[in-house]
C-alpha cells in the first residue's frame, strides 16, 4: 500500500540554532487515525506545520498523496485540512462568511449545502451570522474545525483539538472524527490525553526533543503504558512493610502512612483483590484507597530514558 503521507529524514533548525526536528521519517497510510504524542516542546506542532507546508524544513522531504509539499505545494495542500492550536485572531468576520471564504481560498465554488451540514454538525448553525468576537473559546474552536473541513480534505490534522475545551465539544469532535474515518479520511492528531489516543487511534507515535522515538500499533503501546498505581492511605503509622506483604512490591510512603502498589491495568489479573485480603490478614486498616495513572508527561520521561 502506498502511504498517503511519506516523510523522509525531515529536519528543522531555526535561525537561533534550536533544532526542532531531528531526522524524522514516517509513513502514514490512507484512512488511518494516527496519534502523535509528546510533552510540551517535543516538536509535535513543528512537525505538523512542516508537513502542511507552513514551516520550511532545513532538510528532508514530505510527500502528500504523491506530491512533494515543497515543489508541488498547491496540489499537496489541497489534500490537507488543518485545525491549529492557535485561536483565530479575526474578530469581526461572521462565522458563515469566514468558513465560506476558506473554501474559496482553495479555488472551489461555494457549496451552501455542505456549509450548512458542517455548521450543524459542529453546533454552529445558530451562530452562523455571529461575529467571531461574540463567540466563546469553545465555539471559536468549532469554527477552526469547520474551516478545515469545508474544502473536503482527504487528510485532517488536529493539533491539540480538545485542549482546554468543554466536554461537549470534545464529544462532538470525536463523533466527527469517527464519521470522517468511516468516509476514509486520514486523521493525524496531537494530544496530551492518553484516553483520546486509546479511543481513536490505529497507531501512535511518540516524539520527544524533536526525535520520533516510537511508532507502534495502539494495542502494543497501550500495553506498555498501561501501568497504574493504587494508593492506600493507612489508618495507623507503619514502621516497615510486613514480611507477608513483601511479595507485592509495595512502597511505603512518607511517615509510614501510605502504601503504593503498581500494577498492569491491561493484564488479566491486577492482584488488587489478593492485596486487600493480605492487608486484612496482616491486621492493617486503611482510611482511603484510590488509583492514579501516570500522566503522559511522566510516561514520556520513562520512554526517553529507555531510549
From TrEMBL:
Signal peptide: none annotated. One of its GO terms (molecular function) is ATP hydrolysis activity. Keywords: ATP-binding, Nucleotide-binding, Transport. It comes from the Bacteria. Residues 5-234 form the ABC transporter domain. InterPro entries: AAA+_ATPase, ABC_transporter-like_ATP-bd, ABC_transporter-like_CS, ABC_transporter_ATP-binding, P-loop_NTPase. The keyword Nucleotide-binding applies. Belongs to the ABC transporter superfamily. PANTHER family: ABC TRANSPORTER ATP-BINDING PROTEIN. This is ABC transporter ATP-binding protein. It comes from Roseibium limicola.
